[in-house]
Amino acid sequence: GQNIDQPTEMTATEGAIVQINCTYQTSGFNGLFWYQQHAGEAPTFLSYNVLDGLEEKGRFSSFLSRSKGYSYLLLKELQMKDSASYLCAVVDYGQNFVFGPGTRLSVLP
Amino acid sequence: DSGVTQTPKHLITATGQRVTLRCSPRSGDLSVYWYQQSLDQGLQFLIQYYNGEERAKGNILERFSAQQFPDLHSELNLSSLELGDSALYFCASSAGSGGGGEKLFFGSGTQLSVL
Asked: HSE of A68 in the Cβ direction (CA atoms, 13 Å)?
């Protein structure tokens, strides 16, 4: 079966750093995506990992360990506009996107 | 703007009715995906079409059906609607059949309310 776990909610302070974890057990692995979704809006692409290691893109970084079935999204210098849900999605061997439940992040002043 | 167009943005209807949601993918994209997102829940995959053919099927109810037309736009038909069908329905598109790091680009969604 397909199973992706993320914390339901997280809270952090403006200017701080937050790490959002994602663990997965899927029918094969062909890459992992992170998407950001503001309430009532469309998800937008943040990052993609297919090999182990860290991918850095400005204030956002994403890490992958395939052997552990684990990824995290690191957000630095948090801003109020970063308050959103963050969705982890794994592409399985059938090339299907499997989305996790999402983590709702609240950034407080 | 992702380039994916969904209409209508909002739809209010009654139980037992039938509705059609429409999606135009980004220019050049061959795949269209449909997702359902209920309140405070994750994205549930319904179905994918690639170049006019059904490619993958998720947890799509028998009351729901979809198709992709020769111009690559897609329609999702929901019939015998129930209260529990109230949700945000997203369409997404990708360049190819999926995989290989292809990103999904999402439309702004159709908010369906069944009363």
From this structure: 11
